[in-house]
Design goal:
Elements: H1 3-10, H2 14-28, E1 30-35, E2 44-46, E3 49-54, H3 58-63, E4 73-78, H4 79-93, E5 96-99, E6 108-110, H5 112-124
Helix pairs in contact: 2-5
C-alpha cells in the first residue's frame, strides 16, 4: 500500500471508510485489530459502549497506536477467525464494531448484525 492511498483514505468521512473497508476485506479476506501484551483484544469506549476496532490493512491500524495504545500489537485475522472467534467475542462482550478509526478518532460504528449483513452482501458478489 502506498502513502498516497493511505493519505487519501484517512481523510474520508467514516461512512466512506466503512464502505472502503467492506470492499477491501471482501476482496482480501483479512482484516486487522489490536491486541495487548497479554494477547487480549483491545477495546475502546464511547458513551459507555465498548467498541471493537477493525481496519482493512496493517498500515491503518498502526496509525492508531497513539495516546496509550503505543504498546499494542496489530493482529491479522481472516474470515474464518471472524466466524469462529470474533463474532462470539463481540457478542459476548456486548461490543459494537468500530470500523476504521483514524488516529484517536472513532470510525464508523455498527452493530454486529449490520456489519455481518454488509460484509455478507459484499462477499456474495465474489460468489
Amino acid at each position: 500500500m502506498n502513502q498516497k492511498e493511505i493519505d487519501s483514505v484517512i481523510v474520508l468521512e467514516p461512512l466512506e471508510r466503512y464502505k472502503y473497508f467492506i470492499k477491501k476485506v471482501a476482496d482480501a479476506e483479512v482484516f486487522f485489530t489490536l491486541i495487548d501484551k497479554n494477547c487480549d483484544y483491545v477495546l475502546s469506549e464511547l458513551e459507555e459502549q465498548k467498541l471493537f476496532p477493525m481496519w482493512s490493512s496493517i498500515e491503518y491500524a498502526e496509525l492508531c497506536k497513539i495516546n496509550g495504545w503505543e504498546q499494542h500489537i496489530v493482529k491479522t485475522l481472516d474470515l474464518d477467525d471472524l466466524e469462529n472467534e470474533i463474532i462470539d467475542f463481540i457478542a459476548n462482550e456486548g461490543c459494537l464494531i468500530n470500523v476504521f478509526p483514524v488516529y484517536d478518532n472513532t470510525g464508523f460504528v455498527v452493530s454486529l448484525t449490520e456489519f455481518s449483513r454488509d460484509l455478507g452482501a459484499e462477499l456474495s458478489k465474489y460468489g
